[in-house]
Design a protein that fits this description.
The structure holds 2 protein chains of 2 kinds. By secondary structure, chain A is mainly alpha-helical. Among the domains of chain A are: 281 residues, no CATH class; 151 residues, Four Helix Bundle (Hemerythrin (Met), subunit A), CATH 1.20.120; 59 residues, no CATH class. Chain A is 69% helix and 1% strand. Chain A has a two-stranded antiparallel ribbon. Chain A has a two-stranded antiparallel sheet with strand order 2-3. Chain A is elongated. In chain B, 65% of the residues lie in helices and 0% in strands. Chain B is mainly alpha-helical. Chain B contains 3 helices and no strands. In chain B, helix 2 runs antiparallel to helix 3. The radius of gyration of chain B is 19 Å and the shape is elongated. Chain B has a single domain, classed as Helix Hairpins, CATH 1.10.287. The chains are: A mainly alpha, B mainly alpha. Chains A and B meet through helix 26, helix 27, helix 28, helix 29 and helix 30 of A and helix 1, helix 2 and helix 3 of B.
C-alpha cells in the first residue's frame, strides 16, 4: 500500500471517524475536522505536476483479487491529476462553505459529512483507477453517495423524488458501463486501462467493439447528464447548495466527461463514437441553454446551464477525436478542440462553483431562490454581486474572463469540424458551428437573466421572508477564491497551459505524442479578425436583443406542452411500468389454487411433450413384454372403472369407497406381481386410510345440501387427459428403451451370503438401503406429531378477533 | 402386459388430475390418493413384470422378480400414507375452522401476501 493508495482511501477512513468526532465535540462544527484533509490532499497532488508535465506517469499497484485480474491499481497521469486537483481543491472550498452554510444546531452534520467524504473518496478513486472494475466500484459509490446527499433533507418529498430519479438513471448507466467493461475484457483479456490502450489498434475489428462502445457511452451520458438523460440533474437541485456546487457542477457530472476522455484512445477510431459524442454533446448544449432561459429558480437555471456546458465539453471531445486520424503533436487544427475541452473543464469548475455558492448565499440571506421575488440586491450584497458578475460574464463568454478564451476555442474547434472530410463530416459538419452559435446565444440570455433579474431592478422586500444582508466572511471566501481564479486564468492562461492542459491532452491523445515531446498549447486573447471573433460579437448582440425582448418571444416555450417533456415521459413510463406489472401480476396470480395447478399441469404437458418430440424419444417396442393374463385384465378393468366412476360419484361417501376399491385392487396387483410385502402393507394402509377418510368426513356437518358431482369442465378434462397421455407415452417409451441390466442380481446373490436374510425386500429396506427407512420413520413421526399438534393446539380462536 | 399397465396408469393420472382441479377439498385429497396409486404402479411396471418367484430366497427358484422396485414402493407407500393422513386432518381442521371445503372460497385475500 503506497501513499497514493492511502490518499484515495483517506476520505473513506475519515468518514468512519466522523460520527465519533461529532458526538465527542458537540460544540465544534464538524466541518472543521475534515477541512484539513482535502487541503492536505490538494497539496499532495500538486507535487505531481512537475512529474506529469514532463510526460511521466506514476503507477502504484496493490493486489486485490489477482486471480480475476482485479487489482487496486492507481495511476496518475495528466488527466487523472487534473481531476484529482479539481476534486480536492473545490472539495476544500465546499467544505469551508458548508461550515457556514449548514447550521450546527439544526442539521445532522455527522450524516452530511460522512456522505460528502464518501463521495470525495469515491470520486478520487474513479479518476485515479487504472483498473476498470475498480473504476466501476468507485463509480457506483459516487452514484450511491450522491443519492444520499440529494436526499439529505429526506423529510421533503421533492428531495426523495430527486434522489430516486438520479439513482435510477445513473445506476442504469453504471450497469450499462459494467456491461461495456466485461465486453472489453472479452476482447482484450485484461481489466487494466493502460494495457487496453496499448492494444487499442486491434480492437475495432472485433464484433464486440461497437456494443462495448455503446455501453460505455450510455454510462458516460447518464452520469454527465447528457440529452436525454439530463432530466435527473435539475431535480438533484433539492440537495443542499454545497452539494449542488460540488457534485452537480464541478465533480460528479464530470465523471462522464472523464470516462469519455479516458476511453478516447480506445474507441475514438470509430466514426460512431465521434458522431455520438459530438452530436449528443451539441444537442445537449443547445437544449440545456434553451431550457435554462425559461427557469425561474436560480438553481434551476444553473442546473440547465451545467447540462449545457457539459454538452459543450462533450462535443469538443468528440470533435477532438478527429485529431487521431490526422495530425501530429504540433499545430493540429483538431487538437485545439481537445485543448478547449480540457480548458473549459477547468473554467467551468471555477465559475460554476462560484455561481452555485453565490446563489446559495442569496438563498441563505433572503430565504428564496425564486427569480420573480428577487431584485435590486446589488447595493445590499455587493460582494455577492461582484462574484456573480464575474461568474456569469465568464459563463457567457465575455473577455477578459476565462470563459471567453474557452468559448473562442470552442468556436474554432466547431468551425474546423466540417473540414475533416471523414465520417461525412464535410456534409453535416456545418451543423456544429450553427447549433453551437445558437446555443451560445441562449447561454448569453440566461446569464443576463441570472445577473440582472437578481441584482438590478426594484427591490421587493415585501416578497422576502428575511431582511437581506451580506453573508458572513467565511461563506464569501470560497466563492471569492473561485472568482479570482476565473480572472487569473482569464488573464494568464499560460499558467495552465503546460502544467495541466498539455499533460491532460497527452493522456487523451497518447498516440499523437512522441517521446520527449509535448502538446503546444496556444491560448491567446487576440486571434485577429477571424470568424470566431465575429461569432462572439454576434452572440453578444443577438443575446442582448433577445434579453430585451424576452417577453415577446417567450411564447415559443409554450409550443412544447409540458405533457411531452422528458420529465413527464420519465414519470409516465415509471408509473406505467408499475401499473402494468401490478396488473400483470394480479392477472396471473389470482389466488385460486386451481389456476396455479392448471399452470403447473400445462407446463408439465408442454415441456415434456416438446422434449419427447424434440429428442425423438417416443418409441414403441413390443419385444420385452410380459404376457397378458386373464386375471390381470379383470383387475385392470376394475381399477379403470372405479377410478373413472369417482368422477361421476354424487356423494363423498361413494368417492371414498371407490378410492378404497382402487387401493384394494392395487393390493391384488401386488399379489399377482409377486410382491407379498407390498400387498400386506397396501392392504393395511388402505384400510387405515379409508377409515380415516370416513372418520373425518362422515362426522362433518353437511355444509351444502346438494353435494353434486364434480362439475363437468371441458378444459379441466383436456388438461387431465393431457397429463394421462403424457404419462402413458413416457412409460411406454421408457419401457421400450432400456439401456442396461438391473443391478438387482447383486441383491439376489448377496441377501443371504452377506446380510443373512432370506426376504430380499426386507433386507434391502433395513440393511442395504437402511438410511431410506430411517428417514421414512422420521416422516411418519413428523406426520404423527403434526396431526397431534393440529388437533390439540387452538391458539388463534377468539384472540385475533 | 406392460402396455396395458401403461394405459391403466395413464387413466389413474388422468382421473387424479381431473379431481385435483375440482373445487372440493375432499376430491383433491382423493385425487392425490389416486395419483400415488398411479405412481406406485408405474414404479412396479417399469421394474419389469417378467414372471419369476417372489423375492424370497426360500423359494429356491431359478429367477426372482426384481426386489429393488418393491423396496422403493414400500417406502413410497409409507411416506404417502403419512402425508395423506396429515393432509386429511389438515382438511378436517380447515373444514371445522373455516366452515367450507370449497377451494374457491379458501382463496387468499388482497393484502394477505
Amino acid at each position: 500500500m503506497s501513499l497514493l493508495h492511502l490518499a484515495i482511501v483517506s476520505p473513506l477512513v475519515l468518514a468512519a471517524l466522523i460520527p465519533t468526532l461529532y458526538r465527542t465535540f458537540p460544540k465544534i462544527h464538524t466541518g472543521w475536522f475534515l477541512l484539513p484533509l482535502p487541503i492536505l490532499l490538494f497539496s499532495y497532488f500538486l507535487q505531481f505536476i512537475s512529474q506529469t508535465s514532463q510526460g511521466n506517469t506514476i503507477t502504484r499497484n496493490l493486489q486485490w483479487i489477482p486471480s480475476l485480474g482485479i487489482d487496486f491499481t492507481v495511476k496518475i497521469d495528466g488527466l487523472g491529476l487534473l481531476f484529482a486537483l479539481l476534486i480536492t481543491g473545490i472539495g476544500s472550498l465546499v467544505v469551508l462553505y458548508s461550515i457556514y452554510y449548514l447550521s450546527k444546531e439544526k442539521e445532522k452534520l455527522n450524516l452530511f459529512y460522512v456522505y460528502l467524504l464518501l463521495f470525495m473518496g469515491a470520486m478520487l478513486g474513479v479518476v485515479l483507477s487504472d483498473n476498470l472494475i475498480l473504476l466501476y466500484s468507485f463509480w457506483e459509490l459516487t452514484s450511491f453517495s450522491s443519492f444520499l446527499l440529494i436526499g439529505y433533507w429526506h423529510h421533503r418529498e421533492r428531495s426523495r423524488y430527486g434522489a430516486q430519479k438520479s439513482m435510477l438513471i445513473t445506476v442504469f448507466g453504471g450497469l450499462a458501463m459494467l456491461g461495456g467493461i466485461l465486453l472489453l475484457y472479452m476482447m482484450t483479456g485484461t481489466f487494466s486501462i493502460s494495457e487496453t490502450i496499448a492494444v487499442a489498434g486491434e480492437l475495432p475489428g472485433s464484433q464486440l467493439f461497437i456494443p462495448a462502445l455503446l455501453c460505455f457511452l450510455l454510462g458516460a451520458f447518464t452520469k454527465s447528464a447528457q440529452f436525454p438523460f439530463h432530466i435527473w440533474l435539475p431535480d438533484a437541485m433539492e440537495a443542499p447548495t454545497p452539494v449542488s456546487a460540488y457534485l452537480h457542477s464541478a465533480t460528479m457530472v464530470k465523471a462522464g466527461i472523464y470516462l469519455v476522455a479516458r476511453l478516447t484512445p480506445i474507441f475514438a477510431q470509430s466514426g460512431i463514437w465521434l458522431w455520438l459524442v459530438a452530436g449528443i454533446g451539441i444537442i445537449t448544449l443547445f437544449w440545456g441553454s434553451f431550457s435554462a432561459v425559461r427557469q425561474s429558480d436560480l438553481k434551476g437555471i444553473l442546473a440547465y446551464s451545467t447540462i449545457s456546458q457539459l454538452g459543450m465539453i462533450m462535443s469538443l471531445l468528440g470533435i477532438g477525436a478527429v485529431a487521431l486520424h490526422f495530425d501530429g503533436v504540433n499545430d493540429g487544427i483538431y487538437t485545439v478542440a481537445v485543448t478547449a475541452a480540457v480548458f473549459h473543464l477547468i473554467n467551468h469548475a471555477t465559475f460554476k462553483g462560484s455561481l452555485f455558492m453565490a446563489v446559495g448565499i442569496i438563498d441563505h440571506e433572503t430565504g428564496t431562490r425564486d427569480i420573480r421575488r428577487l431584485g435590486g440586491l446589488m447595493t445590499l450584497m455587493p460582494i455577492t454581486f461582484t462574484i456573480s458578475l464575474i461568474g456569469t460574464l465568464s459563463m457567457a463568454g465575455l473577455p477578459p474572463f476565462n470563459g471567453f478564451l474557452s468559448k473562442e476555442m470552442f468556436f474554432t474547434g466547431m468551425l474546423n469540424a466540417k473540414e475533416a472530410g471523414i465520417f461525412s463530416l464535410d456534409v453535416w459538419g456545418i451543423l456544429f458551428p450553427v447549433i453551437a452559435w445558437t446555443g451560445s446565444v441562449f447561454t448569453f440570455v440566461y446569464c443576463m437573466i441570472l445577473l440582472f433579474r437578481t441584482f438590478t431592478g426594484g427591490f421587493k422586500p415585501e416578497k422576502l421572508d428575511k431582511e437581506p444582508h451580506e453573508a458572513p466572511l467565511g461563506m464569501l471566501v470560497p466563492p471569492i477564491i473561485l472568482a479570482s481564479l476565473v480572472i487569473v486564468f482569464g488573464l494568464f492562461p499560460k499558467l495552465l497551459a503546460n502544467t495541466l492542459i498539455s499533460p491532460a491532452m497527452a493522456a487523451i491523445l497518447p498516440s499523437l505524442v512522441e517521446d520527449g515531446k509535448q502538446f503546444n498549447v496556444h491560448i491567446s486573447h487576440w486571434h485577429g479578425f477571424k470568424p470566431e471573433l465575429f461569432m462572439t460579437i454576434g452572440v453578444v448582440l443577438v443575446g442582448i436583443l433577445l434579453y430585451k425582448t424576452q417577453e415577446s418571444w417567450s411564447g415559443i416555450y409554450r409550443l412544447f406542452p409540458e405533457k411531452f417533456s422528458f420529465n413527464k415521459l420519465y414519470d409516465h413510463s415509471l408509473e406505467l411500468l408499475q401499473r402494468v406489472s401490478r396488473k400483470f401480476t394480479r392477472m396471473y396470480m389470482n389466488g385460486f389454487i386451481r389456476t396455479y395447478l392448471v399452470y403447473i399441469f400445462s407446463f408439465f404437458i408442454f415441456i415434456l411433450g416438446v422434449a419427447l418430440v424434440y429428442s425423438q424419444a417416443v418409441k414403441f417396442d413390443t419385444a420385452d413384454l410380459a404376457e397378458v393374463r386373464f386375471y390381470e385384465v379383470i383387475l385392470v378393468a376394475i381399477i379403470a372403472l372405479s377410478s373413472v366412476s369417482i368422477l361421476f360419484a354424487k356423494s363423498r361417501l361413494t368417492s371414498i369407497i371407490l378410492l378404497g376399491a382402487v387401493g384394494y385392487t392395487v393390493a391384488l396387483f401386488f399379489v399377482i406381481f409377486r410382491a407379498p410385502d407390498l400387498a400386506l402393507t397396501q392392504l393395511v394402509i388402505e384400510t387405515v386410510s379409508v377409515s380415516l377418510f370416513l372418520l373425518c368426513f362422515y362426522h362433518l356437518p353437511k355444509l351444502r345440501k346438494s353435494e353434486g358431482r364434480v362439475g363437468f369442465k371441458l378444459f379441466n378434462l383436456l388438461i387431465a387427459a393431457g397429463v394421462g397421455a403424457i404419462v402413458t407415452v413416457i412409460s411406454l417409451s421408457a419401457h421400450s428403451s432400456k439401456k442396461f441390466e438391473s443391478i438387482s442380481n447383486y441383491y439376489i446373490e448377496n441377501t443371504y451370503k452377506k446380510a443373512g436374510g432370506e426376504n430380499m425386500v426386507n433386507v434391502i429396506l433395513v440393511d442395504f438401503r437402511g438410511f431410506d427407512t430411517l428417514f421414512e420413520i422420521c416422516v411418519l413421526g413428523i406426520a404423527a406429531l403434526g396431526i397431534y399438534g393440529m388437533i390439540k393446539l387452538r391458539l388463534a380462536k377468539g384472540k385475533t378477533e | 402386459m406392460e402396455i396395458l399397465m401403461s394405459f391403466l396408469i395413464g387413466i389413474l393420472f388422468m382421473t387424479a388430475t381431473y379431481l385435483m382441479l375440482s373445487k372440493s377439498l375432499l376430491r383433491i385429497i382423493i385425487g392425490t390418493g389416486l395419483l400415488s396409486h398411479g405412481a406406485h404402479l408405474l414404479i412396479l411396471t417399469m421394474g419389469g413384470l417378467k414372471r419369476g418367484a417372489a423375492p424370497l430366497l426360500g423359494e429356491h427358484a431359478k429367477s426372482y422378480v426384481d426386489p429393488l422396485p418393491q423396496a422403493l414402493i414400500l417406502t413410497a407407500i409409507v411416506i404417502s400414507f403419512g402425508v395423506t393422513s396429515f393432509f386429511l386432518v389438515l382438511a378436517y381442521r380447515a373444514y371445522q375452522e373455516l366452515g367450507t371445503d370449497n377451494m374457491d372460497r379458501l382463496r387468499g385475500k388482497e393484502g394477505h401476501e
